Amino acid sequence: MLKVKKFTFNPFSENTYIIYDDSKECVIIDPGCFTKEEEAILDNYITENQLKPVMLWHTHSHLDHVFGSSFVSKKYGIDLWIHKEDLQTLSSFEAVCNMYGLPVNNIPPAANHFFDLEKGISFGNSKLEIRFVPGHAPGHVVFVDDQNQRVVGGDVLFKGSVGRTDLPGGDPTVLAKSIEQVLYALPDGHVVWPGHGPSTTIGEEKQTNP
Fold first, then answer.
1. How many C-beta atoms surround the C-beta of residue 104 within 10 A?
2. Are the CB atoms for 45 and 71 separated by under 8 Å?
3. CA separation (Å) from 62 to 42, 44, 91, 158?
């Protein structure tokens, strides 16, 4: 069974995820570690649970989701995977940090691999589907675990809200289409683990999200 561990890091209260199965192989998704203390929290969990990181995934590469990507890639010797349309967001990290007045300490690594939406992606004894959901960011994806009814959803769909579209590459019409045609096509019972805030379900958001 695929397990999900959530951490909330950095000044933007971003959700970082580790997913793993009984093989003990794990994937780190959107590492937002901003301080040495947050890096230690992530590393301690991996060590205490005897996990083996094998891949680093970005749902998208906005700065709050990638503060810790350099640390993770170097610490565990693992490659970064993104959607090819996410390159423009990844490459803007330094400029956006400067815009927010944040120190540019750890520039994310180069993307070594691009997701193949048709093949999905596998690690350990698990395989996940990848869905392309632009609108919040041009190269945004979500990871779908149908067997355990879970979605690691980044900043597309939140509990009672949706991702902002006023950042470069954002588009409210495209985001609405991604939610209605891609996420709302999933079964109502699927739990959404978002990039900020608490988890929710597809069914709850279809009924109540304004």
1. 12
2. no
3. 20, 25, 10, 16
Span 18-30, pLDDT tens digits: 999 999 999 999 9
With cut-offs at 50, 70 and 90, classify the pLDDT of residue 9.
very high
Which own/partner pairs from 168-177 qualify as long-range (CB within 8 Å, at least 24 positions apart)? 168/89, 168/92, 169/88, 169/89, 169/134, 169/137, 169/138, 170/135, 170/136, 170/137, 171/134, 171/135, 172/135, 173/135, 174/134, 174/135, 175/134, 175/135, 175/136, 176/135, 177/135
- Measure Cα distances from 136 to 47, 63, 129, 154, 155 in Å: 34, 13, 20, 9, 7
| Entry pTM | 0.96
Cα–Cα distance for residue pair 205/188, rounded to 1 Å: 9
Q: What tens digit of pLDDT does each residue of 148-175 get? A: 999 999 999 999 999 999 988 999 999 9
pLDDT in tens, 55-76: 999 999 999 999 999 999 999 9
> Mean per-residue pLDDT for 200-207?
98
Question: Given its phi and psi angles, is residue 158 left (phi above 0), alpha (psi -120 to 50 degrees) or beta?
Answer: beta
